[in-house]
TrEMBL record:
InterPro entries: DciA-like, UPF0232_actinobac. Residues 1-24, 36-79 are annotated as: Disordered. Belongs to the UPF0232 family. It comes from the Bacteria. This is UPF0232 protein B8W67_12285. Residues 7-17, 36-48 have a biased composition (Basic and acidic residues).
Amino acid sequence: MSDEPREEPRDGSRPPEHLAGLPGMDLVRRTLAEAREAARSQGKDIGRQQRAPLPGRVTGRRRRWSGPGPDHRDPQPLDDAAADLAQRRGWTARVAEGSVFARWAALVGDDIAQHAHPTALRDGVLAIAAESTAWATQLRMMQAQLLAKIAAAVGDGVVTAVKISGPVAPSWRKGPRHIRGRGPRDTYG
């Protein structure tokens, strides 16, 4: 280094004796290292950067700066934001029930979805309408597999039982009122 005399600090402060011989940045680094060590000995952790809170989590302190890491203010994927909103509002069970109808083909497969569709979900009982009696019988035999697939996709307890019905036979009723009996076929005799 140079042999030029050092400039005295203007405020009259001098570094401690053991640091007096260090030039510029070395003095700053050494002083900072000693300050950190003193803070650690008092139980404080200084010098570590704090991580940004994960999306959807609330921490006790509010961050007042922006940094290179992820932040709760960053744009979030829509499905994550919707799931977080549903959880905060207590809609999780209703969303799971709705996903049974919305994702029916993905839950049970395309073949079953072409021949049967869900009609209602009340108190954990899913009503399924099949297009033929053969499909209704087939679905009744694989009822346990259907429940397992649905539980794996939307969660346990959303659908607890399945009620499968076949097609409805044509009716002879005409109009809103009806009288019990054979109807028009008994007028000939």
